[in-house]
């Protein structure tokens, strides 16, 4: 409500003199310097600051002019406030928002080092929401970087595990192939050599000393090989008990062969494990890759494996003391022939026409108390090949073991021998003829062995006590506990168990009372030295005495001279077999020997593909 102004007050107003205003109901003047826009701006600001027109007193006409001024001032004041607010907005909101956007773009481009750069007191929550957003954004980036680092370390660990052996820490076959490929594709001025080295009898060490000892021995060997190699030579664990050494600069074959021999010397140093001393042996195969040769890593490793196989074969045959071999192209030809033999053997097992037939021949053994009496036979497999004739087991059994055919072959021999023995038993039930069948290590490891033998006995009708299963010491050592359980179950059925080639394996005489065996067969290596070597005589006598004390039957293998037969009789051996008495013969000839229509010693003309020495038995 406006209060009328006095005439004394109007004149100064018209003359733009100082203008006294007062609040309604008060006597306090509010003096405003009416100076054009400045006054209007101030009055506008006063309006903004809640100094209302309703609280001002002036005349109607003067107030109209003031009102005009105030309208312009209000607009200007509002604009001023907007500008102030915009400046505040840019400072408080715009700049942090642009910073957030910039950091987000850098992060999107892969730069995880970018940060908003806002720091807050962790004990007090931030008052500004943008500060909170920036702080949380930086924390998210910190967590993302930490996770990325964790994933990087995990990836490196997985890559290391994929390319390295966990037990030895050496590079594995995958890393070997990768690095060898890289070396072969690099231009070379000197030959590169690869030596493959395989330890012998690690499975036997596990079985005889304790589970896991073999792996400890391998780890120790890995450390020794790593320490033995020189600059430019790298050691890898190619799998199992096999190592590979890559020689980056091998001058020639002689240099590579010398390095292979040095590696063998390192391996053959005694290893102490849990109080036991283990002496290892090994074989090596070496291949030389010359500049200009076109080979892949797999080609080189295959050729090294062929050389290793050659060394193992010659060593097992007793014809090599070096225990190493160098690759030659003829080894590949041998491998091709071995592959062809495996294919033909599969066809023969399947009964494919024209593939030949697997036969069983029988070598008799006699009672030394009556050498003219046949006490039984050992069943031995032969292969009647359509082109090569009668093939000795020495030529195809190793191939069958390599390609996994030895189990079906062994089962085939067991079936045929049991059926034949049952037929012979029907000829004269008063004579307890027995038939022995060899078990391969793979068969002995078969968890279904007992079931298979029981089924064969049921199908053929052969009494269990007339069947003897022969196995070697080494085969039993592969899984001593499991083999002992299976053999004991077979004995419970009535089957007799014979320990073949005794004295040549890894066990000792003390194992005889631990193993469920009924028969001990003395190896030909001892029998052939009787009368020539006092040590051989002492060993044979010791074995016979211990076997007699344990109630075991003894059979001497490979008897070839009358003097050997006489000495064995004097030493108290129970039975004997060998070329002096008879070679392995077909089933019809064996039946003639059994019933007495053919005399022992008169069957020497019936050969079975074996020439000289004891016949190979499988």
Automatic annotation (TrEMBL):
Q: Ranges for the HAMP domain?
A: 91-149
GO MF: cyclic-guanylate-specific phosphodiesterase activity
Superkingdom field: Bacteria
Transmembrane parts of this sequence: 70-93
Biological processes annotated in GO: signal transduction
Keywords, alphabetical: Membrane, Transmembrane, Transmembrane helix
Which InterPro entries does the UniProt record give? Cyclic-di-GMP_PDE-like (IPR050706), EAL_dom (IPR001633), EAL_sf (IPR035919), GGDEF_dom (IPR000160), HAMP_dom (IPR003660), Nucleotide_cyclase (IPR029787), Rev_trsase/Diguanyl_cyclase (IPR043128)
- Any idea where the GGDEF domain is? 190-327
What Gene3D superfamilies does the record tag this protein with? 3.30.70.270, 6.10.340.10, EAL domain
SMART domains associated with the record: EAL (SM00052), GGDEF (SM00267), HAMP (SM00304)
What's a single GO CC term here? membrane
Please state every residue range assigned to the domain named EAL. 338-598
Q: Which NCBIfam families match?
A: GGDEF
Name of the protein this chain belongs to: Diguanylate cyclase (GGDEF)-like protein
